[in-house]
């Protein structure tokens, strides 16, 4: 319309442009979609994030994997709520990142003739600054309670503890030196499970540092004798990078990856039989598809357990009524009483009902 007004010189177009709302109101109008449903006109507001490029595939995958799928209504509402939280969190992290970039400026580029000591210190400082900024931003982005942050650890703790109790109950006889009595099982399981969790967290952290190297120094081989000098430089560069990454991991502010915790974990894992179940939990926690399957199974298992509990209560009351009102049904053909307590009669009623069914 501006171009037409300039070409034609029509003042009516100028008056029309002046009567239009400002850009902000136009943007607000464009973000509103009106849907006519019968005689009712509904307005659906789609909030457009200011940082669209910050939402990558990892965020989308994590969002879709964490959506509750109990029903279609719950899935849609939970998806919309978590999408809004994701947009707010990304904008908040972007603000924190920009603030920390202003407070902690990035180190400048090194000259070409810088020594290997200066390069190593520069690389270490760069990685420490980047990791500090990342940890501060991630910590500031968490708005959940302490229980919300540690709920996954507590749940895994309970799962592995139950597995360990079963292992000890079935594979450690009472006369074995490792048998310490049923009262000390929870403390024993908790101690060893915590030791394994800390150790695996430290190991995965250090392995991630080692595997982050694109090319290992041992794989760099000179093709010709005249390239020996460049090979030495490449090897020196990789060694400096490797040392800086190891130093960064050892000096990391992450409280779960301290070197002293690694030593404590090594001292506590000798008598623990938790290697297989913890490997299983690590694999499940790494793959989003397995997490989704585990969540679905957990939902179905909770429903089955609730149904089983209700059936047990019903059978228990039926056992009481049957023992009181129909005592002859709990005797065999010879007149021998098949059960002498409510618990035994409940088990008998359940087994007889299953067999009859």
TrEMBL record:
Source organism superkingdom: Eukaryota
GO BP: calcium ion transport
Segments traversing the membrane: 156-173, 193-211, 263-287, 307-326
Alphabetized UniProt keyword annotations: Membrane, Transmembrane, Transmembrane helix
InterPro entries named in the record: Ryanodine_IP3_receptor
Coiled-coil residue spans: none
Designated name of the protein: Uncharacterized protein
Organism: Eutreptiella gymnastica
